[in-house]
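Section 5.1 Outputs to date
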Amino acid sequence: MSHSHDHSHSTNFERPIIIGIVLNSAFIIIEIIYGIISNSIALITDAGHNFSDVISLILAWFAIWLIKKKSTKKFTYGFKKGSILIALINSILLLVALGAITWEALQRLYSPHQVEGKIVILVASAGIIINGITAYLFVKGKEDDLNIKSAFLHMLTDTLVSVGVVISGILILYFNLEWIDPVISLIIVAVILIGTWGLLKETISLSMDAAPDKVDTNEVQKYLSSIEGVSGVHDLHIWSMSTSQVALTTHIVCNNEIENDTLLEIIRTDLHRKFGIEHSTIQIENNNDKGDCLQCDCD
């Protein structure tokens, strides 16, 4: 039997998350100050929305801490699974934020009001820069970690909302198109909703120990069956230990002449290289074994 594991790369995103928290916290203070100066409810409301993003980043940071936390005798896998729960909370928070933006946009559609002058446009422009930089910090990690993906989507939402405020502000100031502000907001919500819905579905799946979307179970089965000397593969289970770490257990039936240790090392390396599986537990069975196992969940 072989066990293997590799450390997650999600901890590399601790620094970007801290930078994001600091930048967005500073921006919230700026929005509140200039919201009061310009008498703009829109800016103060957006400051509240940005606060939810800071909470999201703090949760993502907490998830990384959970992944790094050592296992105990009770929590033998450690606390990695908590990162999936946090990703689920983050995706729900994002849906709530989108709901709030939709509600405000619909209200403005029925009773349009002009964006509060050039100060609002300037502050929204600052929002594009700050949120854009923060979102960019998470671009590389969003495919490998659901918490980084949710943080990216939060920041992308804010960036696009700020873009919408600037565009609508310019159109209102120069063309008096007061209805454009809520319309752009609703378009942004629709675009972000597509990504968020996928994130929510995936986090629910992972919380139920489903194989992650990035790993094709059929391809893994095909690969294991194609190895020279392997005559059968059964009890293949693939699941996520955290938002960034994938685990596998399986039983492989081999010819007697195969050198088990060499074979296990090849399989372990290939599973990591081809499928991104960091933690694998493989039980080797020989052809002359009965092949029955009381603990197996055989199909």
